[in-house]
Amino acid sequence: QTIYLKDYRPFGYYLDDVHLTFRLAASATRVVSRISVRPNVDFPGEFFLHGQDVKLIWAKIDGADVTPVVSADGLTCDAPDGPFVWEAEVEISPATNTALEGLYMSNGVYCTQCEAEGFRKITFYPDRPDVMSVFCVRIEGELPVLLSNGNPTSHGDGWAEWLDPWPKPAYLFALVAGDLVAHSDGFTTMSGKDVALNIYVRPGPDEAKCAFGMGALKRSMKWDEDVYGREYDLDIFNIVAVDDFNMGAMENKGLNIFNSSCVLASPETSTDSNFERIEAIIAHEYFHNWTGNRITCRDWFQLCLKEGLTVFRDQQYTGDQGSHAVKRIEDAITLRSRQFREDNGPLAHPVRPESFIEINNFYTITVYEKGAELIGMLKRLVGDDAYRKALDLYFTRHDGDAATIEDWLQVFEDTTGRDLTQFKRWYSQAGTPRVTVTDDFKDGVYALHFEQQTPPTPGQDSKSAQVIPIAVGLLSQDGTEVQPTTVLEMTATTQSFAFNGLAEKPVPSLLRDFSAPVILQRDQTNVERAFLMTHDTDPFNKWDAGDALAKDVLTKSITENTAPDAAYLDGITAILRNDALDPAFRALCLSLPSEDDMAKALHDAGTVPDPLAIHHAIEALKLTTAQHVQDILPRIQADMIVDGPYSPDAKNAGKRSLANSVLGLLSRLDDGAAAAKQYADADNMTMQLAGLAALLRISKGEDQSAAFRDQWRADRLVMDKWFGLTVSLAAPDLAADTALRLTQEPDFDMKNPNRFRAVFGALAGHSAGFHAPSGVSYRLLGDWLAKLDAINPQTTARMTTAFETWRRYDVGRQDQMRDVLETLAKTAGLSRDTGEMVGRMLGNH
Ligand code: ARG
Ligand code: ZN
After folding, report:
1. Which pick of 313, 487, 536, 793 has the fewest CB atoms within 10 Å?
2. Which residues of 122-140 are buried (b: 16+ CB within 10 A; e: fewer)?
3. Cis omega before residue 88 (within 30°)?
4. d(Cα 315, Cα 307) in Å, to the nearest integer?
């Protein structure tokens, strides 16, 4: 059934403390709970405890046996009017828990995932984020390492006890037990407190992959002190790497649990992008200690309160570690391709949704990344100093609270005196605003006229005007900046802004730094785009002009079969030649829009996209570009050679990134000779994988692929790359066959989400292969999702989004995709998770 934000009501009881005892056994773990309960006199209600797949052994109130009424989702029990002690013992089976939610096992290690509603699979409990309590946990089991939240209090042979002094909701509970080894270090906080740091892994090769993550953790701890004044608050901070995990990682208090792919790294096995992502995720989970744990969410509708803010913080952090411009471009690429896609389809929902069936379906790019954009817009509107003051107030006023978006906006109103009523629409209106721009020039006055309009989204037919910060700069015709960046605040549906005292009509640079998550619509010539590509002082818009130019070139090649505009080729050449530009930035300029981005662009322009035509157009443009810049490639390659031992820092990674973009072009001209050489000579994964990818991209590299697989057979994370790349770079007509063949490999394991995603995420992401006209890929994915749903609903539901764009395509493809969705919908025993997603995509709710 559907849950609504408007129905929020506090729980009828307070929990003063929680004692849990775990007697670990793979298929029959016993959990004993003892909870001090006190009625909430302001909001009396029934004593209902959530519980799912837990077997009640006995229950007591104040020491006397009671017989609660147990249902499929919990229990109710008659409770005294005053304070009482609730006790219960339950039995659960971690070994058979393939949903990876609650207490489960990964390679013999006990671990937990409780967010959002997994704690109810561990014991009967009010499993809602506004019920907070102090947890005291005893773990009994003959295992070398027994971990839970907070500080260790005592331990002995086969048992350990932990006390977490900070009241927390159950979703932040964690337990880990197993044969693990620690990579240890320490950090001294700004007030001089020593914190013990550990990254736990299974004994063996993973032990050599912890050092980078540890460094990232220490950098994050320092950064949060320096930039936000936030200090860590326990004696110990533990991270555990597990191979089987539905998401990236989880911020459990003092005991973060990570998908091993998001924490383990070594130069030989991880690419530069892996290193960057790992650093960002470690920072993200660490930052949650304040934005998420010390201040949590009142209910799951407020998810963006912690996620949007924490993503914003990790983005700031990554920018500080390397280049803000490059990070901003990367984030904008992700937002535009994935969040805009979500916002413009059947799964569109506001950053703060108003209803859900299964909350796990709302850990989305909209809640996370658009949520982060809202924080960035607020900061831009109020200014950096006011932002910091508002955050300080947020931390002091709400420490220990389960807060709301209203609380969050209130601290900004109170520190700045600004009325944020209109800004709040960003949280409640789904959809991407379109901002149409025209301009004119007369008597030294340059005017910009904007009109905003947001298309309807499911359940929201009409939208009101939103506050849009539009950062603008003006360039003179000779390319000098006559108006440095200024932020225009658009609040009305149509609005004009004037700039006086100009000698000539300037060239505008609009939405600098991607100052709002909107789509700018403007008639622009390729000459003007090329001009901005050359002269704009704003790195984001400089890149964006090139991206717009590439989209135009590709669109015309697909719809009119036109050869690439010289403006594009000359612009790219100039960027490539310009050694004053950061190599990472140049690499971004060289990368073309993705096939899916082009499908979206064509659809938006009123054309039905043909994925295969898009694929060929992109490949053709790469070849033409390669031919055009042929002469300068060897020099750039030579300049981008990184000497000395591998280091993943932004500077060296940027050089490798450009070197590998160049390799991609070169391989189209030399039949893969340079790529084969790079593959053979590589001493780190970035160069090895790029060599292999360049070969596979031109339908070569069969030997290298086999050699790669032999070399890395024992490394699960590297093998995930191999599975993924093999599908991603298969020829379009072979993508489905390739995926199917890989499922028959002995190393394929559908119970491991990383491996399942490596194969089927790659198939879904292979636009031309996924949309093969026969529909074979649709059906293959549909069949496997039906199989996976029976064992892991969360990962299944997430992967159904492969079909969210079905309405974009021709009738034949639409019919085939709808068939797959309808077949899924009719699957016997379909999970609530997948049922909700499929239903929304079909337009049923
Ligand atoms: N809070 C985690 C993070 O953002 C994500 C956990 C999501 N879990 C889930 N079951 N949806 O770091
Ligand atoms: Zn998070």
Report:
1. 487
2. bbbbbbbbbbbbbbbbbbb
3. no
4. 12
Sequence-ordered strand ranges (E) for 40-83: 48-50, 55-61, 64-65, 69-71, 74-76
Residue 844 has pLDDT above 90, yes or no: no
Q: What are the pLDDT digits (tens) for 106-124?
A: 999 999 999 999 999 999 9
Atom of ligand 1 nearest to the CA of 307: 4
- In our burial notation (b when 16+ CB lie closer than 10 A, e otherwise), range 317-347 reads bbbebbbebbbbbbbbbebbebbbbbbbbbb
Q: Which of 293, 309, 363, 367 for a ligand 1 pocket mutation test, highest count of atoms within 8 Å of Cβ?
A: 363
Ligand 1 centre to CA of 399 (Å) is 21
Burial class (CB in 10 A: 0-12, 13-18, 19+), 485: middle
CA distances 694 to 665, 725, 731, 769, Å, are 9, 11, 13, 18
**Phi and psi, residue 646, nearest 5°:** -60, 135
**Locus of tokens 């209203």:** 406
In sequence order, the 6+-apart residues with CB closer than 8 A to the CB of 423 are 377, 378, 381, 409, 466, 467
- Distance between CA 576 and CA 630 in Å, rounded? 11
% of residues, the chain, pLDDT over 70 = 100
Distance CA 214, CA 239 (A): 9
- Which residues does the annotation mark as catalytic? 285
Question: Could you give the ipTM of this predicted complex?
Answer: 0.98
- The residues whose Cβ lies within 5 A of ligand 2, an ion, are 307, 310
Chain centroid offset of residue 690 CA: 24
Q: For residue 253, how far is its CA from the centre of ligand 1 (angstroms)? A: 13
